[in-house]
Amino acid sequence: MPIREALQIALDRGADLVEVAPSAKPPVCRIMDYGKFKFEQSKRDKDARKKQKVITIKEVKMRPNIEDHDFDVKTKNARKFLTSGDKVKFTIMFRGREITHPELGMKLCEKFAADLADISTVEKIPKVEGKNMVMILLPKIENND
Q1: Residues linked to residue 59 through DSSP beta bridges, in sequence order
Q2: Domain extent for 9
Q3: Of 43 and 22, which is predicted with more confidence?
Q4: Which of residues 141 and 133 earns the better pLDDT score?
């Protein structure tokens, strides 16, 4: 249909002629109320933004020679972060010559991941970055079917 004819039909109906697929041969147009379409689209986008959850990363820092009680306290805090839906960045800070024994940090990371295995999964395995060893945990997603 010629463009002029389609425009005339749209004007007669009090609507707009909107190009839907410009790359098609021939281009495809639709007769619709464009203002209403934009309003409904913005409402859908707003509802989608309301429903999405922003995931933040909480950090838990330790030293390789941490005592058991202190480790338990840090693990409890990480558990609280994971149950509220946040990711946890687990950092072990090495000072001085401690960096020559990364196996101590690795053992601590494995213990931390094992303690939180019921509510989390390891997203990023432990890796030495400078003087720190970093591991990222994310909360498990429960299916309520």
Answers
A1: 89
A2: 3-49
A3: 43
A4: 133
